[in-house]
Write a structure and sequence with these properties.
This is 3-hydroxypropanoate dehydrogenase. The protein has about 210 residues and is α+β, with helices and mostly antiparallel strands. About 35% of the residues lie in helices and about 15% in strands. A four-stranded antiparallel sheet has the order 1-2-4-3, sandwiched between helices.
């Protein structure tokens, strides 16, 4: 087969415990952040890591707006739930995590060996597939941010229609984007950091059959 990979690119080794702790075990959802800017190069690297996570047919529906400037934060502020205003205004960056309703138009670019795969996603299941795969990408984004030494604060308390109208409407490049989650990024502080909540045990949440 043309383009077939002949050597395995991955390494089947367990990453060290410090890395696991940073990304999962010690990581928290933060509600307050230091006044420490995030360099543009770090934001670009964060995206470049996130984009490598798998999606169905490589459809990659997620879209990102990194809200960093005071002017952009002021535009976002009216659409935030009251409890999310202070933390978002203080965070160095708030990411509008969105998905593109016409993500399938990019599939010929993303699957050049099978451009007809676009048609797999244009039917009644288009929205479900787009949302499902963008949620996968949101998970990759949070873990990639932690891997780069950033703390995160994901939020769903905001007026999505208002955000879409303010940031996406009227621009041909973004008019089909729909906001789904907001994610604050920065170096977190212990202010308003609550005790970790319990998780379900393996036996409560999983089966081996």
């Amino acid at each position: 087969m043309a383009g077939e990979v002949t050597s395995k690119p991955t390494h089947n080794t367990v990453i060290n415990e410090d890395a696991i702790a940073q990304v999962f075990l010690d990581a928290r959802t933060y509600n307050d952040f230091e006044d420490t800017p995030i360099p543009e190069a770090t934001l670009k690297r964060l995206y470049d890591i996130t984009k490598m996570g798998p999606t169905s047919a490589n459809n990659s529906p997620a879209r990102f707006v990194f809200v960093q400037s005071d002017a952009a934060k002021a535009r976002l502020k009216p659409f935030l739930a009251e409890g999310n205003v202070e933390k978002s205004m203080k965070a160095p960056v708030t990411v509008i995590f969105a998905w593109d309703e016409k993500y399938y138009d990019k599939i010929p670019q993303l699957m050049p060996h099978n451009p007809g795969a676009r048609e797999w996603f244009t039917g009644p299941g288009a929205e479900l597939n787009g949302r499902r795969n963008s949620v996968l990408q949101a998970g990759y984004f949070l873990l990639a941010a932690r891997a780069l030494g950033l703390d995160t604060g994901p939020m769903t308390g905001f007026d999505a229609a208002g955000v879409d109208g303010e940031f996406f409407a009227g621009n041909p490049a973004t008019e089909n984007w729909k906001s789904d989650i907001l994610i604050n990024l920065g170096i977190g502080t212990t202010k308003n950091l609550f005790p970790r909540l319990p998780r379900l045990s393996f036996d409560e949440a999983a089966q081996i059959i």
